[in-house]
Write a structure and sequence with these properties.
2 copies of one chain form a homodimer. The first copy, chain A, is α/β, with parallel strands linked by helices. Chain A folds into 3 domains: 3-86, Orthogonal Bundle (Arc Repressor Mutant, subunit A), CATH 1.10.10; 92-160 and 265-287, 3-Layer(aba) Sandwich (D-Maltodextrin-Binding Protein, domain 2); 162-261, D-Maltodextrin-Binding Protein, domain 2 (3-Layer(aba) Sandwich). Chain A has helices at 3-15, 18-25, 29-43, 59-86, 99-104, 106-116, 132-137, 183-186, 199-210, 224-232, 276-287; strands at 48-49, 56-57, 92-96, 121-125, 143-148, 156-170, 190-194, 216-221, 238-241, 251-268. The model of chain A has no long low-confidence stretch (mean pLDDT 89). The interface between A and B is large, with 37 and 37 residues. Chain B binds a DNA duplex (30 and 30 nucleotides) through residues 4, 17-19, 27-35, 37-38, 50-53, 55.
Chain lengths: 291, 291
DNA sequence: TGGTATGATAACTATAAGTTATTATACGGA
DNA sequence: TCCGTATAATAACTTATAGTTATCATACCA
Protein backbone atom coordinates (compact mmCIF):
# COMPACT_ATOMS: atom_id res chain seq x y z
CA UNK A 1 0.00 0.00 0.00
CA UNK A 2 1.69 2.99 -1.42
CA UNK A 3 1.12 6.73 -1.42
CA UNK A 4 1.02 6.70 -5.20
CA UNK A 5 -1.67 4.05 -5.20
CA UNK A 6 -3.73 6.10 -2.78
CA UNK A 7 -3.35 9.15 -4.97
CA UNK A 8 -4.49 7.25 -8.06
CA UNK A 9 -7.44 5.79 -6.19
CA UNK A 10 -8.55 9.17 -4.87
CA UNK A 11 -8.28 10.74 -8.32
CA UNK A 12 -10.27 7.96 -10.00
CA UNK A 13 -12.91 8.15 -7.25
CA UNK A 14 -13.30 11.86 -7.69
CA UNK A 15 -13.42 11.85 -11.48
CA UNK A 16 -15.40 8.58 -11.57
CA UNK A 17 -13.37 7.69 -14.64
CA UNK A 18 -10.08 5.82 -15.12
CA UNK A 19 -9.14 7.54 -18.37
CA UNK A 20 -9.78 11.04 -17.05
CA UNK A 21 -7.76 10.25 -13.94
CA UNK A 22 -4.90 8.97 -16.09
CA UNK A 23 -4.88 12.21 -18.07
CA UNK A 24 -4.96 14.31 -14.94
CA UNK A 25 -2.07 12.35 -13.43
CA UNK A 26 -0.15 12.37 -16.74
CA UNK A 27 0.18 8.62 -16.97
CA UNK A 28 -1.46 6.01 -19.17
CA UNK A 29 -4.83 4.47 -18.42
CA UNK A 30 -3.51 0.90 -18.05
CA UNK A 31 -1.15 2.14 -15.33
CA UNK A 32 -4.19 3.33 -13.38
CA UNK A 33 -6.05 0.06 -13.97
CA UNK A 34 -3.05 -1.90 -12.74
CA UNK A 35 -2.56 0.24 -9.67
CA UNK A 36 -6.21 0.03 -8.59
CA UNK A 37 -6.23 -3.72 -9.18
CA UNK A 38 -3.11 -4.11 -7.07
CA UNK A 39 -4.73 -2.15 -4.24
CA UNK A 40 -7.92 -4.20 -4.45
CA UNK A 41 -5.89 -7.42 -4.59
CA UNK A 42 -4.03 -6.41 -1.46
CA UNK A 43 -7.17 -5.43 0.46
CA UNK A 44 -9.08 -8.47 -0.70
CA UNK A 45 -12.16 -6.76 -2.07
CA UNK A 46 -13.27 -4.26 -4.68
CA UNK A 47 -13.08 -0.55 -4.03
CA UNK A 48 -14.66 0.55 -7.29
CA UNK A 49 -17.70 -0.68 -9.16
CA UNK A 50 -16.98 -0.57 -12.91
CA UNK A 51 -20.18 -2.29 -14.03
CA UNK A 52 -21.94 0.99 -14.72
CA UNK A 53 -20.84 3.63 -17.18
CA UNK A 54 -19.55 5.80 -14.36
CA UNK A 55 -17.05 4.30 -11.98
CA UNK A 56 -18.68 4.20 -8.56
CA UNK A 57 -17.32 3.53 -5.11
CA UNK A 58 -18.35 0.37 -3.30
CA UNK A 59 -19.33 0.75 0.35
CA UNK A 60 -15.83 -0.36 1.39
CA UNK A 61 -14.36 1.98 -1.21
CA UNK A 62 -16.22 4.91 0.35
CA UNK A 63 -14.67 4.14 3.72
CA UNK A 64 -11.23 3.70 2.22
CA UNK A 65 -11.53 6.94 0.24
CA UNK A 66 -11.89 8.95 3.44
CA UNK A 67 -8.89 7.24 5.00
CA UNK A 68 -6.81 7.68 1.85
CA UNK A 69 -7.70 11.37 1.57
CA UNK A 70 -6.70 11.94 5.16
CA UNK A 71 -3.35 10.23 4.67
CA UNK A 72 -2.66 12.16 1.46
CA UNK A 73 -3.58 15.46 3.10
CA UNK A 74 -1.16 14.77 5.95
CA UNK A 75 1.54 13.76 3.51
CA UNK A 76 1.15 17.06 1.67
CA UNK A 77 1.04 18.99 4.93
CA UNK A 78 4.27 17.31 6.03
CA UNK A 79 5.93 18.20 2.74
CA UNK A 80 4.79 21.80 3.03
CA UNK A 81 6.13 22.03 6.55
CA UNK A 82 9.52 20.79 5.41
CA UNK A 83 9.47 23.21 2.47
CA UNK A 84 8.95 25.99 4.99
CA UNK A 85 12.07 24.89 6.85
CA UNK A 86 13.92 24.78 3.55
CA UNK A 87 12.67 28.26 2.57
CA UNK A 88 13.54 29.65 6.00
CA UNK A 89 9.93 30.64 6.54
CA UNK A 90 9.93 28.34 9.55
CA UNK A 91 12.64 27.30 11.95
CA UNK A 92 14.32 28.04 15.22
CA UNK A 93 17.64 27.69 16.96
CA UNK A 94 19.22 28.36 20.33
CA UNK A 95 21.76 31.07 21.00
CA UNK A 96 23.75 31.90 24.11
CA UNK A 97 24.07 35.60 24.77
CA UNK A 98 26.04 36.81 27.82
CA UNK A 99 24.53 39.77 29.67
CA UNK A 100 27.00 42.37 28.43
CA UNK A 101 26.42 41.50 24.78
CA UNK A 102 22.71 41.05 25.36
CA UNK A 103 22.62 44.64 26.49
CA UNK A 104 23.96 46.30 23.41
CA UNK A 105 25.24 44.13 20.55
CA UNK A 106 22.49 41.57 20.46
CA UNK A 107 19.41 43.82 20.30
CA UNK A 108 20.57 45.42 17.06
CA UNK A 109 21.63 42.09 15.60
CA UNK A 110 18.38 40.46 16.59
CA UNK A 111 16.22 43.28 15.22
CA UNK A 112 18.02 43.29 11.88
CA UNK A 113 17.90 39.51 11.59
CA UNK A 114 14.19 39.48 12.36
CA UNK A 115 13.63 42.04 9.64
CA UNK A 116 15.19 39.67 7.11
CA UNK A 117 13.73 36.45 8.54
CA UNK A 118 10.53 37.35 10.41
CA UNK A 119 9.39 33.72 10.71
CA UNK A 120 12.53 32.37 12.31
CA UNK A 121 12.67 32.10 16.06
CA UNK A 122 15.65 32.02 18.32
CA UNK A 123 15.71 30.95 21.92
CA UNK A 124 18.13 33.13 23.84
CA UNK A 125 20.08 31.67 26.76
CA UNK A 126 21.37 34.51 28.85
CA UNK A 127 21.94 32.54 32.01
CA UNK A 128 25.12 33.54 33.77
CA UNK A 129 25.51 30.05 35.31
CA UNK A 130 27.39 28.58 32.33
CA UNK A 131 29.51 30.51 29.90
CA UNK A 132 28.36 30.81 26.31
CA UNK A 133 31.39 28.75 25.28
CA UNK A 134 30.35 25.86 27.51
CA UNK A 135 26.77 26.00 26.28
CA UNK A 136 28.04 25.72 22.71
CA UNK A 137 30.46 22.89 23.60
CA UNK A 138 27.66 20.93 25.32
CA UNK A 139 25.32 21.57 22.40
CA UNK A 140 22.81 23.21 24.72
CA UNK A 141 22.79 26.01 22.18
CA UNK A 142 23.69 26.09 18.50
CA UNK A 143 25.66 29.35 18.55
CA UNK A 144 27.06 31.72 21.15
CA UNK A 145 27.74 35.42 21.10
CA UNK A 146 31.01 36.06 22.97
CA UNK A 147 33.96 38.30 23.57
CA UNK A 148 36.79 37.05 21.32
CA UNK A 149 39.34 35.63 21.27
CA UNK A 150 39.25 32.85 23.70
CA UNK A 151 41.33 29.74 23.30
CA UNK A 152 38.83 28.22 20.91
CA UNK A 153 40.66 25.73 18.77
CA UNK A 154 37.67 23.35 18.99
CA UNK A 155 35.07 25.90 17.87
CA UNK A 156 34.44 27.94 14.76
CA UNK A 157 34.15 31.65 15.31
CA UNK A 158 33.32 34.73 13.38
CA UNK A 159 34.09 38.34 14.35
CA UNK A 160 31.10 40.63 14.38
CA UNK A 161 32.50 43.91 15.64
CA UNK A 162 35.52 45.29 17.40
CA UNK A 163 34.50 47.89 19.94
CA UNK A 164 36.76 50.32 21.70
CA UNK A 165 36.61 50.30 25.47
CA UNK A 166 36.43 53.82 26.84
CA UNK A 167 36.69 55.28 30.30
CA UNK A 168 33.39 56.56 31.69
CA UNK A 169 33.68 59.49 34.04
CA UNK A 170 31.21 61.86 35.63
CA UNK A 171 31.07 64.99 33.47
CA UNK A 172 32.36 67.13 36.34
CA UNK A 173 35.38 64.91 36.95
CA UNK A 174 38.76 66.70 36.81
CA UNK A 175 39.98 64.34 34.04
CA UNK A 176 36.86 64.72 31.93
CA UNK A 177 38.41 67.12 29.48
CA UNK A 178 41.49 65.02 28.63
CA UNK A 179 41.69 63.79 24.98
CA UNK A 180 42.71 60.33 26.26
CA UNK A 181 43.66 58.65 29.52
CA UNK A 182 46.30 56.15 30.69
CA UNK A 183 45.95 53.60 33.48
CA UNK A 184 48.62 55.59 35.38
CA UNK A 185 46.31 58.61 35.44
CA UNK A 186 43.46 56.42 36.73
CA UNK A 187 45.33 54.44 39.38
CA UNK A 188 43.69 56.18 42.35
CA UNK A 189 40.16 56.35 40.95
CA UNK A 190 37.58 54.01 42.52
CA UNK A 191 36.15 51.80 39.78
CA UNK A 192 32.77 50.19 39.16
CA UNK A 193 32.89 46.77 37.50
CA UNK A 194 30.74 43.91 36.40
CA UNK A 195 30.54 41.01 38.81
CA UNK A 196 32.97 38.13 38.94
CA UNK A 197 32.56 35.91 35.88
CA UNK A 198 31.96 38.69 33.38
CA UNK A 199 34.54 38.85 30.64
CA UNK A 200 34.76 42.63 30.66
CA UNK A 201 35.72 42.63 34.36
CA UNK A 202 38.53 40.24 33.67
CA UNK A 203 39.81 42.30 30.72
CA UNK A 204 39.91 45.50 32.78
CA UNK A 205 41.56 43.88 35.79
CA UNK A 206 44.13 42.26 33.49
CA UNK A 207 44.98 45.67 32.07
CA UNK A 208 45.43 47.12 35.57
CA UNK A 209 47.63 44.13 36.43
CA UNK A 210 49.77 44.73 33.35
CA UNK A 211 50.50 48.19 34.76
CA UNK A 212 51.07 46.75 38.21
CA UNK A 213 48.21 48.72 39.64
CA UNK A 214 45.75 47.34 42.16
CA UNK A 215 42.60 49.35 41.59
CA UNK A 216 40.09 50.13 44.30
CA UNK A 217 36.83 48.48 43.26
CA UNK A 218 34.03 50.66 44.63
CA UNK A 219 31.26 48.28 43.60
CA UNK A 220 30.40 45.28 41.39
CA UNK A 221 27.09 44.64 39.71
CA UNK A 222 25.68 42.57 36.90
CA UNK A 223 23.49 45.45 35.73
CA UNK A 224 24.63 47.61 32.89
CA UNK A 225 22.18 50.35 33.85
CA UNK A 226 23.44 50.38 37.41
CA UNK A 227 27.02 50.96 36.27
CA UNK A 228 26.01 53.95 34.16
CA UNK A 229 23.91 55.45 36.93
CA UNK A 230 26.69 55.04 39.51
CA UNK A 231 29.20 56.74 37.23
CA UNK A 232 26.79 59.65 36.68
CA UNK A 233 26.41 60.00 40.46
CA UNK A 234 30.19 60.23 40.88
CA UNK A 235 30.58 56.95 42.83
CA UNK A 236 33.45 55.92 40.59
CA UNK A 237 34.65 55.51 37.03
CA UNK A 238 34.08 52.56 34.78
CA UNK A 239 35.08 51.00 31.47
CA UNK A 240 32.52 50.16 28.84
CA UNK A 241 32.37 49.53 25.08
CA UNK A 242 32.16 52.86 23.31
CA UNK A 243 28.92 52.17 21.47
CA UNK A 244 27.15 50.69 24.44
CA UNK A 245 26.62 54.15 25.83
CA UNK A 246 25.32 56.62 23.30
CA UNK A 247 24.55 59.75 25.27
CA UNK A 248 24.13 59.56 29.01
CA UNK A 249 23.66 62.69 31.11
CA UNK A 250 26.60 63.50 33.36
CA UNK A 251 28.79 60.78 31.84
CA UNK A 252 31.78 61.54 29.64
CA UNK A 253 33.57 58.91 27.54
CA UNK A 254 37.31 59.20 26.99
CA UNK A 255 39.49 56.75 25.00
CA UNK A 256 42.37 54.95 26.67
CA UNK A 257 45.98 55.32 25.66
CA UNK A 258 46.94 52.92 24.22
CA UNK A 259 43.53 52.07 22.76
CA UNK A 260 41.82 49.02 24.20
CA UNK A 261 39.49 46.99 22.01
CA UNK A 262 36.89 44.32 22.65
CA UNK A 263 36.26 41.81 19.85
CA UNK A 264 32.80 40.34 19.77
CA UNK A 265 31.84 37.38 17.65
CA UNK A 266 29.80 34.32 17.10
CA UNK A 267 31.00 30.79 17.90
CA UNK A 268 29.65 27.38 16.97
CA UNK A 269 30.69 23.78 16.98
CA UNK A 270 32.32 22.62 13.76
CA UNK A 271 31.05 19.42 12.09
CA UNK A 272 27.87 19.65 14.13
CA UNK A 273 24.92 19.92 11.73
CA UNK A 274 23.09 23.14 12.56
CA UNK A 275 19.43 23.99 11.94
CA UNK A 276 18.94 25.80 8.65
CA UNK A 277 17.67 28.78 10.65
CA UNK A 278 20.94 28.87 12.55
CA UNK A 279 22.99 28.63 9.35
CA UNK A 280 20.97 31.54 8.02
CA UNK A 281 21.81 33.47 11.17
CA UNK A 282 25.53 32.74 10.82
CA UNK A 283 25.45 33.82 7.17
CA UNK A 284 23.50 36.89 8.18
CA UNK A 285 26.05 37.78 10.84
CA UNK A 286 28.78 37.32 8.25
CA UNK A 287 27.33 40.22 6.27
CA UNK A 288 26.29 42.22 9.30
CA UNK A 289 28.09 45.43 10.10
CA UNK A 290 27.50 46.82 13.54
CA UNK A 291 26.43 50.45 13.49
CA UNK B 1 8.32 10.89 -0.79
CA UNK B 2 7.20 7.39 -0.17
CA UNK B 3 5.72 5.42 2.70
CA UNK B 4 8.63 3.01 2.53
CA UNK B 5 11.11 5.86 2.83
CA UNK B 6 9.27 7.18 5.87
CA UNK B 7 9.33 3.75 7.46
CA UNK B 8 13.08 3.41 6.89
CA UNK B 9 13.70 6.88 8.27
CA UNK B 10 11.63 6.26 11.40
CA UNK B 11 13.38 2.94 12.04
CA UNK B 12 16.86 4.43 11.64
CA UNK B 13 15.91 7.35 13.88
CA UNK B 14 14.69 5.04 16.59
CA UNK B 15 17.62 2.63 16.47
CA UNK B 16 20.13 5.44 15.81
CA UNK B 17 21.94 3.01 13.53
CA UNK B 18 21.65 2.27 9.81
CA UNK B 19 22.86 -1.33 10.02
CA UNK B 20 20.53 -2.24 12.88
CA UNK B 21 17.63 -0.68 11.00
CA UNK B 22 18.54 -2.66 7.88
CA UNK B 23 18.51 -5.90 9.88
CA UNK B 24 15.18 -5.05 11.49
CA UNK B 25 13.65 -4.26 8.10
CA UNK B 26 15.26 -7.32 6.48
CA UNK B 27 17.03 -5.39 3.79
CA UNK B 28 20.66 -4.50 3.20
CA UNK B 29 22.36 -1.52 4.78
CA UNK B 30 23.14 0.23 1.47
CA UNK B 31 19.43 0.16 0.66
CA UNK B 32 18.79 2.15 3.83
CA UNK B 33 21.61 4.58 3.04
CA UNK B 34 20.23 5.14 -0.43
CA UNK B 35 16.68 5.64 0.78
CA UNK B 36 17.64 8.17 3.47
CA UNK B 37 19.84 10.04 0.99
CA UNK B 38 16.99 10.17 -1.50
CA UNK B 39 14.70 11.61 1.15
CA UNK B 40 17.27 14.20 2.19
CA UNK B 41 17.94 15.07 -1.44
CA UNK B 42 14.27 15.64 -2.02
CA UNK B 43 13.79 17.76 1.10
CA UNK B 44 16.95 19.73 0.49
CA UNK B 45 18.61 19.25 3.85
CA UNK B 46 19.93 16.58 6.18
CA UNK B 47 17.62 14.71 8.51
CA UNK B 48 20.31 12.68 10.23
CA UNK B 49 23.69 13.63 11.60
CA UNK B 50 26.14 10.78 10.95
CA UNK B 51 29.24 12.60 12.16
CA UNK B 52 29.08 11.00 15.60
CA UNK B 53 29.21 7.31 16.34
CA UNK B 54 25.46 7.25 16.94
CA UNK B 55 23.21 8.50 14.22
CA UNK B 56 21.42 11.56 15.58
CA UNK B 57 18.49 13.56 14.30
CA UNK B 58 19.07 17.10 13.11
CA UNK B 59 16.59 19.72 14.28
CA UNK B 60 14.71 19.42 10.99
CA UNK B 61 14.90 15.64 11.28
CA UNK B 62 13.21 15.79 14.68
CA UNK B 63 10.31 17.71 13.21
CA UNK B 64 10.06 15.38 10.24
CA UNK B 65 10.18 12.29 12.46
CA UNK B 66 7.00 13.37 14.22
CA UNK B 67 5.24 14.00 10.93
CA UNK B 68 6.44 10.70 9.48
CA UNK B 69 5.35 8.73 12.54
CA UNK B 70 1.90 10.27 12.35
CA UNK B 71 1.53 9.39 8.68
CA UNK B 72 2.73 5.82 9.24
CA UNK B 73 0.37 5.36 12.18
CA UNK B 74 -2.57 6.51 10.06
CA UNK B 75 -1.50 4.25 7.23
CA UNK B 76 -1.48 1.26 9.58
CA UNK B 77 -4.80 2.30 11.10
CA UNK B 78 -6.32 2.51 7.63
CA UNK B 79 -5.01 -0.93 6.76
CA UNK B 80 -6.39 -2.35 9.99
CA UNK B 81 -9.77 -0.81 9.33
CA UNK B 82 -9.88 -2.42 5.90
CA UNK B 83 -8.79 -5.76 7.36
CA UNK B 84 -11.76 -5.52 9.70
CA UNK B 85 -14.08 -5.09 6.73
CA UNK B 86 -12.38 -8.05 5.07
CA UNK B 87 -12.75 -10.18 8.23
CA UNK B 88 -16.37 -9.16 8.68
CA UNK B 89 -15.58 -7.69 12.08
CA UNK B 90 -16.74 -4.36 10.73
CA UNK B 91 -19.28 -3.42 8.13
CA UNK B 92 -22.87 -2.47 7.51
CA UNK B 93 -25.55 -2.68 4.88
CA UNK B 94 -29.13 -1.57 4.29
CA UNK B 95 -32.08 -3.90 4.19
CA UNK B 96 -35.73 -3.24 3.39
CA UNK B 97 -38.15 -5.12 5.61
CA UNK B 98 -41.91 -4.70 5.05
CA UNK B 99 -44.04 -4.50 8.22
CA UNK B 100 -45.52 -8.00 7.94
CA UNK B 101 -42.10 -9.66 7.66
CA UNK B 102 -40.62 -7.31 10.21
CA UNK B 103 -43.13 -8.64 12.66
CA UNK B 104 -42.25 -12.30 12.56
CA UNK B 105 -39.65 -13.50 10.04
CA UNK B 106 -37.08 -10.80 10.45
CA UNK B 107 -36.62 -10.81 14.26
CA UNK B 108 -35.48 -14.45 14.24
CA UNK B 109 -33.29 -13.93 11.19
CA UNK B 110 -31.73 -10.78 12.65
CA UNK B 111 -31.07 -12.36 16.04
CA UNK B 112 -29.40 -15.42 14.51
CA UNK B 113 -27.32 -13.32 12.12
CA UNK B 114 -26.16 -11.06 14.95
CA UNK B 115 -25.08 -14.13 16.89
CA UNK B 116 -22.78 -15.13 14.03
CA UNK B 117 -21.62 -11.61 13.11
CA UNK B 118 -21.97 -9.43 16.21
CA UNK B 119 -19.92 -6.56 14.73
CA UNK B 120 -21.91 -6.15 11.55
CA UNK B 121 -24.67 -3.58 11.47
CA UNK B 122 -27.72 -3.43 9.29
CA UNK B 123 -29.92 -0.42 8.73
CA UNK B 124 -33.52 -1.55 8.42
CA UNK B 125 -35.90 0.35 6.15
CA UNK B 126 -39.44 -0.53 7.11
CA UNK B 127 -41.09 2.49 5.55
CA UNK B 128 -44.37 1.60 3.87
CA UNK B 129 -44.04 4.48 1.39
CA UNK B 130 -42.00 2.49 -1.15
CA UNK B 131 -42.07 -1.25 -1.59
CA UNK B 132 -39.02 -3.26 -0.71
CA UNK B 133 -38.66 -4.14 -4.39
CA UNK B 134 -38.47 -0.47 -5.36
CA UNK B 135 -35.96 0.28 -2.62
CA UNK B 136 -33.74 -2.51 -3.97
CA UNK B 137 -34.18 -1.36 -7.58
CA UNK B 138 -33.24 2.23 -6.66
CA UNK B 139 -30.28 0.99 -4.63
CA UNK B 140 -31.62 2.73 -1.55
CA UNK B 141 -31.05 -0.60 0.16
CA UNK B 142 -28.75 -3.50 -0.65
CA UNK B 143 -31.25 -6.31 -0.02
CA UNK B 144 -34.97 -6.61 0.61
CA UNK B 145 -37.02 -9.14 2.50
CA UNK B 146 -40.23 -9.75 0.54
CA UNK B 147 -43.13 -12.01 -0.25
CA UNK B 148 -42.17 -14.08 -3.29
CA UNK B 149 -42.66 -14.48 -6.13
CA UNK B 150 -43.12 -11.18 -7.78
CA UNK B 151 -42.27 -10.58 -11.40
CA UNK B 152 -38.61 -10.12 -10.58
CA UNK B 153 -36.66 -10.94 -13.71
CA UNK B 154 -34.31 -8.03 -13.01
CA UNK B 155 -33.48 -9.07 -9.43
CA UNK B 156 -31.84 -12.03 -7.77
CA UNK B 157 -33.90 -13.73 -5.10
CA UNK B 158 -33.54 -16.44 -2.54
CA UNK B 159 -36.39 -18.26 -0.74
CA UNK B 160 -36.16 -18.24 3.02
CA UNK B 161 -39.36 -19.92 4.11
CA UNK B 162 -42.72 -20.89 2.80
CA UNK B 163 -45.47 -20.20 5.34
CA UNK B 164 -49.01 -21.45 5.21
CA UNK B 165 -51.72 -18.83 5.40
CA UNK B 166 -54.43 -19.87 7.83
CA UNK B 167 -57.87 -18.53 8.66
CA UNK B 168 -58.08 -16.81 12.02
CA UNK B 169 -61.45 -17.07 13.75
CA UNK B 170 -62.73 -16.23 17.19
CA UNK B 171 -62.68 -19.43 19.26
CA UNK B 172 -66.48 -19.32 19.68
CA UNK B 173 -67.12 -19.00 15.95
CA UNK B 174 -69.42 -21.71 14.46
CA UNK B 175 -66.71 -22.75 11.99
CA UNK B 176 -63.96 -22.96 14.58
CA UNK B 177 -64.08 -26.73 14.84
CA UNK B 178 -63.72 -27.47 11.13
CA UNK B 179 -60.49 -29.28 10.11
CA UNK B 180 -60.13 -26.92 7.14
CA UNK B 181 -62.11 -24.20 5.41
CA UNK B 182 -62.89 -23.19 1.80
CA UNK B 183 -63.50 -19.65 0.51
CA UNK B 184 -67.09 -20.76 -0.21
CA UNK B 185 -67.62 -21.40 3.50
CA UNK B 186 -66.23 -17.95 4.32
CA UNK B 187 -68.02 -15.88 1.66
CA UNK B 188 -70.38 -14.13 4.12
CA UNK B 189 -67.85 -13.55 6.92
CA UNK B 190 -66.69 -9.96 7.42
CA UNK B 191 -62.91 -9.88 7.05
CA UNK B 192 -60.15 -7.80 8.59
CA UNK B 193 -57.24 -6.99 6.29
CA UNK B 194 -53.98 -5.08 6.11
CA UNK B 195 -54.20 -1.67 4.47
CA UNK B 196 -53.93 -1.03 0.77
CA UNK B 197 -50.36 -1.64 -0.40
CA UNK B 198 -49.65 -4.66 1.77
CA UNK B 199 -48.87 -7.79 -0.17
CA UNK B 200 -50.91 -10.08 2.06
CA UNK B 201 -54.06 -8.00 1.43
CA UNK B 202 -53.60 -8.38 -2.29
CA UNK B 203 -53.03 -12.14 -2.04
CA UNK B 204 -56.21 -12.65 0.00
CA UNK B 205 -58.35 -10.43 -2.24
CA UNK B 206 -56.95 -12.22 -5.32
CA UNK B 207 -58.01 -15.55 -3.82
CA UNK B 208 -61.53 -14.24 -3.16
CA UNK B 209 -61.63 -12.94 -6.73
CA UNK B 210 -60.60 -16.37 -8.08
CA UNK B 211 -63.73 -17.75 -6.40
CA UNK B 212 -65.84 -14.86 -7.69
CA UNK B 213 -66.58 -13.72 -4.19
CA UNK B 214 -66.68 -10.08 -3.14
CA UNK B 215 -65.87 -10.17 0.56
CA UNK B 216 -67.14 -7.65 3.06
CA UNK B 217 -64.10 -5.88 4.48
CA UNK B 218 -64.97 -4.92 8.04
CA UNK B 219 -61.79 -2.98 8.64
CA UNK B 220 -58.25 -2.33 7.35
CA UNK B 221 -55.21 -1.58 9.45
CA UNK B 222 -51.42 -1.63 9.15
CA UNK B 223 -51.04 -3.08 12.66
CA UNK B 224 -50.53 -6.79 13.08
CA UNK B 225 -51.57 -6.60 16.74
CA UNK B 226 -54.79 -4.81 15.86
CA UNK B 227 -55.82 -7.55 13.45
CA UNK B 228 -55.32 -10.24 16.07
CA UNK B 229 -57.23 -8.29 18.73
CA UNK B 230 -60.14 -7.57 16.38
CA UNK B 231 -60.44 -11.26 15.48
CA UNK B 232 -60.46 -12.21 19.17
CA UNK B 233 -63.25 -9.69 19.79
CA UNK B 234 -65.33 -11.24 17.01
CA UNK B 235 -65.28 -8.22 14.68
CA UNK B 236 -64.39 -10.49 11.76
CA UNK B 237 -62.11 -13.19 10.49
CA UNK B 238 -58.65 -12.74 9.01
CA UNK B 239 -55.84 -14.53 7.18
CA UNK B 240 -52.33 -14.63 8.56
CA UNK B 241 -49.15 -16.71 8.17
CA UNK B 242 -49.41 -19.73 10.42
CA UNK B 243 -46.26 -19.08 12.42
CA UNK B 244 -46.91 -15.40 12.91
CA UNK B 245 -49.50 -16.24 15.57
CA UNK B 246 -48.30 -18.78 18.07
CA UNK B 247 -51.01 -18.88 20.72
CA UNK B 248 -53.51 -16.08 21.01
CA UNK B 249 -56.47 -16.25 23.40
CA UNK B 250 -59.85 -16.56 21.73
CA UNK B 251 -58.31 -17.03 18.26
CA UNK B 252 -58.41 -20.33 16.38
CA UNK B 253 -56.27 -21.02 13.29
CA UNK B 254 -57.69 -23.28 10.58
CA UNK B 255 -55.93 -24.23 7.29
CA UNK B 256 -57.53 -23.36 3.97
CA UNK B 257 -58.57 -25.92 1.41
CA UNK B 258 -56.74 -25.95 -0.87
CA UNK B 259 -53.72 -24.88 1.17
CA UNK B 260 -52.47 -21.35 0.55
CA UNK B 261 -48.79 -20.59 1.00
CA UNK B 262 -46.78 -17.44 1.32
CA UNK B 263 -43.17 -17.59 0.09
CA UNK B 264 -40.78 -15.23 1.77
CA UNK B 265 -37.34 -14.49 0.49
CA UNK B 266 -34.47 -12.10 0.02
CA UNK B 267 -33.92 -10.06 -3.13
CA UNK B 268 -30.97 -8.02 -4.37
CA UNK B 269 -29.74 -6.39 -7.52
CA UNK B 270 -27.54 -8.59 -9.68
CA UNK B 271 -24.17 -7.20 -10.92
CA UNK B 272 -24.35 -4.53 -8.25
CA UNK B 273 -21.33 -4.90 -5.96
CA UNK B 274 -22.63 -5.42 -2.45
CA UNK B 275 -20.89 -4.64 0.84
CA UNK B 276 -19.05 -7.67 2.21
CA UNK B 277 -21.36 -7.51 5.24
CA UNK B 278 -24.33 -7.83 2.93
CA UNK B 279 -22.78 -10.75 1.05
CA UNK B 280 -22.23 -12.42 4.41
CA UNK B 281 -25.90 -11.86 5.19
CA UNK B 282 -27.02 -13.37 1.89
CA UNK B 283 -24.78 -16.39 2.47
CA UNK B 284 -26.10 -16.64 5.99
CA UNK B 285 -29.72 -16.56 4.78
CA UNK B 286 -28.82 -19.28 2.28
CA UNK B 287 -28.06 -21.63 5.17
CA UNK B 288 -30.84 -20.33 7.40
CA UNK B 289 -33.82 -22.50 8.16
CA UNK B 290 -36.78 -20.76 9.66
CA UNK B 291 -38.03 -22.44 12.81
C1' DT C 1 -27.93 -1.83 -34.07
C1' DG C 2 -23.58 0.31 -34.98
C1' DG C 3 -20.29 3.75 -33.25
C1' DT C 4 -18.01 5.64 -29.40
C1' DA C 5 -16.14 5.70 -24.87
C1' DT C 6 -14.01 3.20 -21.46
C1' DG C 7 -11.72 -0.36 -18.71
C1' DA C 8 -9.00 -4.82 -18.96
C1' DT C 9 -5.27 -7.43 -20.72
C1' DA C 10 -0.79 -8.73 -22.79
C1' DA C 11 3.81 -7.91 -24.02
C1' DC C 12 7.37 -4.97 -23.54
C1' DT C 13 10.43 -1.04 -21.56
C1' DA C 14 12.27 1.97 -18.27
C1' DT C 15 12.86 3.23 -13.69
C1' DA C 16 14.23 2.69 -9.23
C1' DA C 17 14.76 -0.28 -5.36
C1' DG C 18 17.68 -3.71 -3.67
C1' DT C 19 22.04 -6.65 -3.67
C1' DT C 20 27.04 -7.75 -3.05
C1' DA C 21 31.62 -6.18 -2.67
C1' DT C 22 34.42 -2.74 -1.15
C1' DT C 23 36.13 1.58 0.84
C1' DA C 24 36.53 5.40 4.19
C1' DT C 25 36.16 6.82 8.75
C1' DA C 26 35.19 7.29 13.60
C1' DC C 27 35.57 5.27 18.03
C1' DG C 28 37.27 2.40 21.86
C1' DG C 29 40.62 -0.57 24.06
C1' DA C 30 45.42 -2.06 24.83
C1' DT D 1 49.07 6.50 20.13
C1' DC D 2 47.86 2.95 17.24
C1' DC D 3 45.27 -0.96 15.79
C1' DG D 4 40.92 -3.41 15.33
C1' DT D 5 36.13 -3.08 15.00
C1' DA D 6 31.81 -1.04 13.80
C1' DT D 7 29.44 1.57 10.67
C1' DA D 8 28.04 4.47 6.74
C1' DA D 9 29.08 5.59 1.86
C1' DT D 10 29.96 4.26 -2.76
C1' DA D 11 30.15 1.56 -7.07
C1' DA D 12 28.60 -1.86 -10.08
C1' DC D 13 25.25 -4.92 -10.89
C1' DT D 14 20.51 -7.34 -10.54
C1' DT D 15 15.76 -7.55 -9.78
C1' DA D 16 11.26 -5.94 -9.25
C1' DT D 17 7.81 -3.12 -10.57
C1' DA D 18 5.71 0.88 -12.40
C1' DG D 19 4.63 2.56 -16.72
C1' DT D 20 4.11 2.21 -21.93
C1' DT D 21 1.91 0.90 -26.40
C1' DA D 22 -1.22 -1.93 -28.80
C1' DT D 23 -5.30 -4.26 -28.66
C1' DC D 24 -9.59 -6.34 -27.09
C1' DA D 25 -14.19 -6.63 -24.69
C1' DT D 26 -18.10 -4.34 -23.27
C1' DA D 27 -21.51 -0.93 -21.99
C1' DC D 28 -24.00 2.96 -23.42
C1' DC D 29 -26.12 6.26 -26.60
C1' DA D 30 -27.96 7.87 -30.89
Amino acid sequence: MDIRELEYFVTVSELQNFTAAANKLHISQPAISKSIHKLEEELGFQLLDRTQKKVLLTEEGTVFLDLAKDILARMIAAQNTMIEYKNLTRGNFRIAVPPLLGAYVFPQLFADFKKSYPSLDMSVYEDGSSTAVDLVRNEDVHVGLIILPSNLTDLHSHLITSQEIVVCLPTDHPLSNEPFLTFEQLKDEPIILYNEGFVLRKIILDEYAKHNIVPSVALSTNQFQTIKALVAKGVGISFLPKNSIKVVNHVTKIPLHPHLFLDMGLIWKPDKILPLACKAFIDFVNDFTYK
